[in-house]
Amino acid sequence: NLLGVRHILLVLSGKGGVGKSTICTELALALRHGGHRVGILDVDLCGPSIPRMLRMQDRAVHQCDSGWVPVFVGQDRGIALMSIGFLLERPDDAVVWRGPKKNALIKQFVTDVAWGDLDFLIVDTPPGTSDEHISTVEALRHYKLLGAILVTTPQ
User: Fold this and answer.
1) How many other CB atoms sit within 10 Å of the CB of residue 94?
2) pLDDT value, residue 94
3) Could you give the percent of the chain with pLDDT greater than 70?
4) Cα–Cα distance between 82 and 77 in angstroms, integer?
5) Model confidence over 16-25: pLDDT tens digits?
6) What is the pLDDT of residues 103-139, one digit of tens each?
7) Which domains does the chain possess?
8) What angle is formed at CA 9 by the lines to CA 51 and CA 13, rounded to 5 degrees?
């Protein structure tokens, strides 16, 4: 389902609270403003903040023949978005999962979301250097990974 995605960007950090989700959101908005087709994949499973940042937290994910349909942002449906935040009963529910379940969901997000044609897919990763990062890179290995943005602070 990523065959129509031209470029994939990972957004990473070594710690939480440095602004990864803000960078992802602003980058997606800027690329969209520049005329690009953009998607955001929020794999920060324990802190899915992208739906809230884009005021989409009350939306639901639906199924189609080719997988999950991402949530589209704006009247022009200019940004496609997938997050575990859409799969929770309540947006503030905690996700307390062991590694294998998290890794399986990340793989499912990569293989089972019907992204369609995108110029850029921005991947918001969790903070740190956990199994989720390895699973994300492994799942994206066969696709057009453009690069990574490492968000840091001066401490």
Assistant:
1) 8
2) 64
3) 95
4) 13
5) 888 899 999 9
6) 888 888 888 999 999 999 999 988 877 777 788 888 8
7) 5-151 (3.40.50.300)
8) 75
| Predicted local distance difference test score (pLDDT) of residue 2 | 87
| DSSP category for residue 124 | E
Residue, of 85 and 98, whose pLDDT is higher: 85
Would you state the structure tokens that stand for residue 90, as one six-digit string?
């309540």
Task: Write out the H or E segment, with its range, that includes residue 31.
Answer: helix 20-33
Q: Rounded to an integer, what distance in angstroms lies between the CA atom of residue 11 and that of residue 69?
A: 23
Contact 10, 150 (CB under 8 A): no
Report d(CA 12, CA 89) in Å as an integer.
27
Alpha-helix runs per DSSP H in 63-121: 99-112
CB 43 within 8 A of CB 125: yes
* Cα–Cα distance for residue pair 35/146, rounded to 1 Å: 19
